[in-house]
Amino acid sequence: MGREMTKQFSPEDVITALLAFLPGEFDNDPEKIHRTIRNLQQKEEYRDLLEGFEFLDYPRFPYSPLLGRILNRLQESRLLSSRNPDYRVYQVKQVSREAIVSYFVGEGEVLYEQRDKLKAIASELEKELKSVEP
Q1: Domains of the chain, residue spans
Q2: Which CATH number fits domain 11-125: 1.20.58, 3.40.50, 1.10.287, 1.10.10?
Q3: Do residues 9 and 111 lie in contact, with contact meaning Cβ atoms separated by under 8 Å?
Q4: Mind listing the pLDDT tens digit for each residue in 9-44?
Q5: Apex 14 CA angle, 131 and 129, nearest 5
Q6: How far, rounded to the nearest angstrom, does the alpha carbon of residue 96 sit from its chain's CA centroid?
């Protein structure tokens, strides 16, 4: 009888932690975000972090309802914001980044051991979501 291992982190923890490694401003492009996460999920080295996301094959792009809800919750909690008037740019303020590091990727925290993978995922996302100059 084997002991089943359970993860110490949730998909929401992973997406939140990614914000610590993305630029302060980046495109709010749902198609690119969902497509990139799905593509990275299929790579063995990131599967353990991204396997919690299920994607629907919509005609325009793969869509994860869970990822959509997580991004909305991050905005409601003010860890992530969209710049007015057209909401095409996401912002991660320094105070938010510090809170994320403290609670998710700081030494001894739930995703501390996954920092290198999170940085690599954030780098791939950043390539797709052009950084925006302030």
Answers
A1: 11-125
A2: 1.10.10
A3: yes
A4: 999 999 999 999 999 999 999 999 999 999 999 999
A5: 15
A6: 14
